[in-house]
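User: I've been trying to design a sequence by hand for this structure and keep getting stuck. Would you show me what you'd pick, starting by listing the structure so we're on the same page?

Assistant: Good idea, let's start from the same input. This is the structure you sent:
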């Protein structure tokens, strides 16, 4: 199982798929589902949905992993051929300078570029400790004029992502671009292999536009009207010196169940999981001898924040895997955590039977 998840994660991480431009990722996943004998369909926004029919008397389950990644988009081409860009999603400005990027120019073609970093020898003492706002940054693709850039296929609106990268680290850990959320897409593909062996109807949703204000999954949920939503994404690992006060989530220590998430700004949205799902995953983890970590954090937002409000309400929970250095060009996770997450999900789905209740009053706090 771990080798399959590793292969899928690696291949997915190497495919550019900025939020709103997920087509290459979707086509890859559709092909992998087809190899598993599972039909899938895309909706108007671009979500890829695969439904495995089950017992209609049981609660239906929607599982989500988002295909898109954060990045940039061309806003202006200077006369010199240098390129200005807008951020798409929560791109950290302090992690941008000197990064290699890839610009998708259509027809499956990409062009490399480098986000400029002022020459060190000309940097003033004040500039050495200043984070350059993205509005001041520019991308150098080697062009000598705006005409050359246009002729190469670059224009206003061209999507830009960190140059795809996959790094194998010690101890079964991997790093690279778009671990968020291609690793979860790989886990969902592993789940697809077992979906026919569970009782309830299962909807596998590979969503779009998550990094662009969590838009895609809401449309899918409005159509599917699930009873349960399980969202798969990273959880903030807190086992590095700079994160120790944020919680107790460790890389390699198992999957993570979110007990509380709150954005704390902007939308003021978040998710407190349904008690039936908290009990389901904790009891399943105990029975399967899987260590289940817990997280509670402010500052991040997931698709359950909106999906839980669809229709008559959806029982929702965020399940994930620990990850370090999130939203940077090189994120890190542990393959063992991905494998354990897949095993936990499969075992939990198999426990949703006729005696499973979503009545909150059956769960006394």
């Amino acid at each position: 199982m771990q080798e399959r998840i590793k292969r899928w994660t690696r291949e997915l991480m190497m495919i550019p798929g900025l939020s709103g431009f997920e087509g290459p990722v979707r086509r890859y996943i559709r092909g992998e589902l087809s190899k598993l004998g599972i039909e899938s369909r895309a909706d108007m926004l671009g979500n890829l949905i695969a439904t495995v029919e089950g017992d209609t008397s049981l609660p239906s389950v929607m599982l989500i992993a988002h295909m898109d990644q954060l990045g940039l988009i061309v806003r202006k081409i200077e006369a010199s051929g240098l390129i200005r860009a807008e951020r798409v999603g929560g791109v950290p400005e302090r992690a941008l300078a000197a990064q290699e990027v890839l610009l998708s120019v259509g027809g499956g073609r990409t062009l490399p570029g480098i986000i400029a970093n002022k020459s060190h020898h000309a940097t003033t003492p004040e500039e050495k400790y200043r984070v350059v706002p993205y509005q001041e940054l520019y991308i150098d693709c080697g062009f000598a004029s705006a005409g050359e850039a246009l002729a190469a296929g670059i224009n206003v609106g061209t999507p830009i992502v960190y140059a795809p990268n996959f790094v194998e680290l010690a101890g079964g850990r991997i790093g690279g671009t778009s671990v968020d959320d291609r690793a979860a897409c790989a886990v969902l593909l592993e789940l697809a292999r077992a979906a026919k062996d569970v009782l309830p109807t299962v909807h596998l949703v590979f969503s779009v536009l998550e990094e662009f204000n969590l838009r895609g999954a809401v449309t899918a949920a409005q159509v599917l009207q699930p009873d349960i939503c399980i969202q798969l994404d990273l959880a903030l690992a807190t086992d590095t010196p700079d994160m120790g006060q944020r919680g107790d989530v460790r890389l390699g220590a198992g999957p993570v169940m979110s007990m509380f998430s709150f954005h704390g700004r902007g939308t003021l949205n978040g998710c407190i999981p349904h008690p039936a799902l908290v009990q389901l995953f904790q009891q399943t983890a105990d029975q399967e001898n899987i260590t289940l970590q817990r997280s509670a954090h402010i500052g991040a937002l997931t698709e359950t924040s909106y999906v839980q409000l669809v229709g008559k309400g959806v029982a929702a929970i965020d399940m994930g895997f620990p990850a370090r250095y999130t939203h940077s060009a090189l994120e890190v996770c542990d393959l063992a955590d991905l494998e354990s997450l897949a095993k936990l999900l499969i075992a939990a789905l198999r426990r949703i039977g006729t005696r499973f209740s979503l009545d909150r009053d059956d769960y006394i706090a």
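That's my pick for every position. To get oriented when you compare it with your attempt: The chain is about 25% helix and 25% strand. The chain has two domains: 2-69+177-362, 71-162.
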